[in-house]
Input
Amino acid sequence: MDKLSIVGILVDERTKSASKVQEVLTKYGDSIISRFGTHDPGEKEHGLITLNFRGENERLTSLMHDLEKLDVVKVKSINMK
Output
């Protein structure tokens, strides 16, 4: 059964790593319900992306693993349903 989760992605060196992060998110785009991204004006190289994600637990784990392979990314998730 599909679960509904919130995924938080903290990106360092966002100007250099944005394309790699986007590549991973595109791979899982069919499971991403919504996405919000922002940067901290006080720390212009840090970005925060939040996702609403619907999919099997294995798919969420796979997304998180692919993102964590990027050294500049930290990922956390909360299962909502």
Q: What stands out?
A: Residues 14-27 form the longest helix (14 residues). The CA atoms of residues 13 and 45 lie 5 Å apart. The chain has one domain: 3-79.
